[in-house]
Write the C-alpha cells for this entry.
Amino acid sequence: MKIIFYEEHADTDAWLGGLRRELPDADLRIWQPGDTAPADYAIVWRAPRELFANRPELKAIFNLGAGVDAILDVERKEPGTLPPNATLVRLEDTGMAQQMVEYSTYAVLRYLRRFDEYEALQREGRWQKLTQHARASFTVGVLGLGVLGGEVARGLLELGVPVRGYSRTAKKIEGVEVYAGPERFDAFLDGVHVLVNLLPHTPDTEGILNARTFAKLARGAYLVNVARGPHLVDDDLLAALDSGQLAAATLDVFHVEPLAKEHPFWKHPRVSVTPHISAETLREESIVQIAAKIKALSRGETIGGIVDFSRGY
Ligand code: NAP
Ligand code: GLV
C-alpha cells in the first residue's frame, strides 16, 4: 500500500518513523509538488490542491486535525478536485479533548473569578477587591457538542456553573441543558455569561459570532473562540466590547493566521490572544489512530470519523 504524507510545519522524520513502525509493509513518502505517482492513502494537513487533483485511485484522505474546513474549501473553490471515491477522515480526539477542556476551563475560571481584571489592576499597581460573579447564575453556553464540545461541556460542570450546549441534532449529556436546531438558538443564548465556540466551520456557521448573537447574551458576557476564525465577525466583537455588551474575549483562532501584527486584537486590553494552541495535534496518538484505521479499511471494515460532505463536518 502506498501512502503520501504532507504537513508543511511538522517534523516529517518523526511522523514517517512512527507511521513506519505502525505500518511496516506500507510504502510511505513525503508528498512534494509535482508528485503525481499513485497513492492509496493521503495523510495531510492544509495541503495544496495539487496534492488531491487527478488522484482517482486514492481510497482515503486522513486529515491531521479535527476540522476539515481547509480540505472542503479546496473542493468548494474547484468542484471535482477531491478524488471522487476517497473517504475523508478527521482525527477523533487523539488527546485534543483533554486540551480543549483545560483551555476552556482556564478561560471560564479566569472570568468567573475576575482574574483578568486583577491582572489589569496589578498592571496599574492598584489593590482593589472586586465582587465575585455569582456562580449559580454564571451560565456557560457551549456551541457544538461533538467530539470536543461534548467533553468541554462535561468538563465545565466541574466548576459548578450551569452549562448549556447547542448542536444541530438533539443529544443527552447528563447535567447539561441541550438546545438543538436553529429554532432553539436564541433560547440557548438567552442569559449566557460565557459563550464557548466549538462548532465546525461550515457555510451554516460562518459569522455566527456576530452582533445579533452577542446582543442575546447576558450584559457583560464573555466570549471564548477555540473553533475557527471565520466564525467571528471581528468588528462586531470590537463594537460589543466598546459598548459593554461583552466584557472580554479569549481568542485562539483568527481569520488570517498568524494574526497580523497590526490587528487591533493584539493590543486590546480585554482581548486575550493565543496562537491556535487550544488543542494541538499530538503525533503519537494521531499515528496510532490513523494506522489502526488504515488497517481496518484494508480489511474492509468500517471506521469512525468519516466526514459527511453534505454537512461539511
Ligand atoms: P465535531 O465532532 O464534528 O462536532 C461538531 C459539533 O457541532 C456537533 O455537535 C454538531 O452537531 C455541531 N454543529 C455543526 N454544525 C452545526 C450547526 N449548523 N448548528 C448547530 N450545531 C452544529 O467537531 P469537534 O471534533 O468537536 O471539533 C469542533 C471544531 O473545533 C473543529 O471543526 C475545529 O474547527 C475546531 N478545533 C480547533 C482546534 C484548535 O486548536 N483551536 C483544535 C481542534 C478542533 P451534531 O452533533 O448535531 O452533528
Ligand atoms: C485544529 O485546529 C484542528 O482542527 O484539529
Notes: The pocket of glyoxylic acid (ligand 2) is lined by residues 65-67, 281 (CB under 6 Å). Residues 222 and 284 are 35 Å apart (CA to CA). Residues 96-112 form the longest helix (17 residues).
